[in-house]
Amino acid sequence: TSDIGKAILRINAHLEEFFGRKELVLELDDSKKGYVVKRDGDVAYNLSEGEKNAIALAYFIVKTKEKGFKVKEGIIVIDDPISSFDSNFIYHCFSLIKNYFKEAKQLIISTHNFEFFNLVKYWFEHKNQSVESANKKIISQADKKQIPCEFFMIENVITNEKRCASIVRLEDTLRKFKSEYHFLFSRLNQFIAEGSPDYADFYTIGNLARRFLEIYINFKIPTAGDLRSKVDQLDTPTVSETEKDKVYKLIQEFSHSLDPSSAIEHKDKGEIQNAIKVLMRMVEESDKKHFESLKSTLRSLSA
What we know:
Layout: H1 4-19, E1 24-28, E2 35-39, E3 42-43, H2 49-63, E4 75-79, H3 87-101, E5 106-110, H4 114-135, E6 152-159, E7 162-169, H5 172-176, H6 180-193, H7 199-202, H8 205-220, H9 227-233, H10 241-256, H11 269-286, H12 288-302
Parallel strand pairs: 4-5
Antiparallel strand pairs: 1-2, 2-3, 6-7
Helix pairs in contact: 1-2, 3-4, 6-8, 6-11, 8-10, 10-11, 11-12
């Protein structure tokens, strides 16, 4: 910048926000033309990848404030900014990007981190919903505004024994669901709502049900113990022990069965659907607020 001293002050302010203390700071080197990184007053060696990323992001934000560059007229590209950050820094990093670059003419963000992706997705979808809401008030279809935010993914394929990558539209599963847990709940509800599910579903539904139950039960009862003992601890007044046995048996049989005869038998559709319905009742009765929150998420996805 034209005033390197002011630039250092801004960078150090960002670093203090990142780490919650004045541990890492930039100072002018002996030439007064470059930087030196110090930790607690001494030259900093062996910086972690997270610390390097924090310095790079702080430096980048300050660079965009230089004379001649206007964020509102610029294209900002941010590539995987939190690859080495723990969860505490992910939210701060997202907040910095949102606050400093929300008015960029074009903002491109790429990431491998699902938690960071969800934060960005929620932000972008909220912007889209605002535009869609405004569009409903426009009479002429020709005057509709373009949706401002779009989602893509890198898809890798093997062609002629060589790995190739393409930019494609984001898959609906990643677009719709905030987590694996929400996706599993959606699939189980879809399964019990169908009048006559395909037999193909029966070969996957046990694994889905077991995975869903494991996630729920481990949050609900975080103490040590196997899946069955935790199921028995759930407060489910109208679900009998016999029904719990049926749910546990079917989930076990469909996901972990060692009986070779199960590979050649067709299961009873009604029995399997009924077991999944009982599983949903177990969740609803043991934590009604949690269950209603999941159902609300489904309704918002289908809206």
